[in-house]
Each structure stands twice: as structure tokens, then as C-alpha cells.
Amino acid sequence: MQNILIIDDDVFIGNMLEEILIKEGYAVSRAYSGTEAILFLSGNTPDLVLLDLMLPGLCGEDVLQKIKDIPVIVVSAKLDVNDKVHVLLSGAADYITKPFDPKELLARIAVQLRNKKVSDSAPIFVFDDIALDVLSHSVTVADREIRLTKTEYAILKILLQNHARVVTKSDLLDRISADTPDCTESSLKIHVGNLRKKLKAVSDKDYIESVWGIGFKMRTE
């Protein structure tokens, strides 16, 4: 049974969400503040998180920064486009405003869980003519294998796993730090630059895009 964590201090909305989700066959966990959510996530890994932004204690934006490898749908009353853009660029998988239609929310949840299942089960990540094989740790571009350093491979893997969104510099460093302690904030740009050159040398395409002041993403244009 897939587990969904609801992070919302509004008891009425939380109860309503829990009732809807249980009827759909999901298991539900609850957190009523940002601090409680972080404590829960330190020992548990839900399949998806529904996150309110206006939380007591640690705000939703700060909680989002600490959630790794779990799809997060922000459920918020904030209607400003800049708020939506900010959280989507910061790692949220989706954003839905309150009040919402339960059917729409359930559809968005189903999409994210389906995408996560495909991502978790796929030993090969493919983008354009790049293929990264997780089992063999090999990377090919237009069917030609290229040699990457451990750091370059780790960076490319994260970018391919999140090819539809911007990966912030801090998020990228956090997620590769265990395997590549040599990569620091000051050297990250150099590693990404070297990776871009190696990929471009094969097919003359610039696959990685720098998003000024934020991070990096796979170029989709």
C-alpha cells in the first residue's frame, strides 16, 4: 500500500484529505508543522508528500528543500504565480491551489506515483540521445560510450532523473555529497562545465542548461 504524508496544520483540510486518500486505498501519515514533518521524514520514506506552505515553525519552502527523492505536491492557498514558480524550481513536482477539486488532486497524485514507479524501476535513464546505465555505470551519447569522472557521472544521473525541472545547486551538492565529497560549491561549476564539454564533443549538442542564480537542468528546446 502506497503511503502519502500530509503536511498541513489545518486540521479540517487534513482530515478531508486523509478521508479522500483512504477511500482511494492509500495509507496516510500526518504532520502538523514543518518541524514535525522533518522529524517524521528522518525515519520514514513516504511515496508522496502533500505539502502546505504556510506552516507553523519551519515553513513549507524550507521543508521542501529538505525532502529528497520523494515527489512533493504543494497544496497551498497562495495564488501568486511567483510563489508557484519558486516552489516548482525548488523541487516540487506539482502545485495545486486551495480550494481544489478532489478528483483533480487524485489525478495529480496518480500521475506522480506512476512517474516515480517508472523512475525507480528503470536501470537506464534516457534523455535525447544520452543513455545512462545505472547497473554498469556507463554513459553513451549517440551510441558512443564516453568516460566520465565519478563526480561527472553523479551530476549527470541527478540531472537525468530530474530532466523536467531545474535542480538547484544546493540540492545537487546535497544529493551527490556522499559519493563525491570532493565536489564543493566552488568546484561544482567546473565539474558541470567539463561534463557539458564531454557530452557536446560527441554530437555537438549542448545538453545541459545553466539557470542563472539557481542551478542546472537538461536542455529541452
Helicity range of the residues?
40-55%
Structural class: alpha/beta
- How many distinct domains? 2
Report, as a whole number of angstroms, the end-to-end distance.
38 Å
Strand percentage: 15-25%
Spatial ordering of strands, largest sheet = 2-1-3-4-5
Low-confidence stretches: none
Tell me the radius of gyration.
19 Å
Main β sheet profile: 5 strands, parallel
Describe the structure.
With 221 residues, the protein is of the alpha/beta class. It has two domains: 3-120, Response regulator (Rossmann fold, 3-Layer(aba) Sandwich); 123-218, Arc Repressor Mutant, subunit A, CATH 1.10.10.10. 43% of the residues lie in helices and 22% in strands. The chain has helices at residues 11-23, 34-41, 60-66, 81-89, 102-121, 150-161, 169-176, 185-203, and strands at residues 3-7, 27-31, 48-51, 72-76, 94-97, 124-127, 130-133, 138-141, 144-146, 167-168, 208-211, 215-218. β8 and β9 (144-146) form a beta hairpin.
Give the topology, please:
Layout: E1 3-7, H1 11-23, E2 27-31, H2 34-41, E3 48-51, H3 60-66, E4 72-76, H4 81-89, E5 94-97, H5 102-121, E6 124-127, E7 130-133, E8 138-141, E9 144-146, H6 150-161, E10 167-168, H7 169-176, H8 185-203, E11 208-211, E12 215-218
Parallel strand pairs: 1-2, 1-3, 3-4, 4-5
Antiparallel strand pairs: 6-7, 7-8, 8-9, 10-12, 11-12
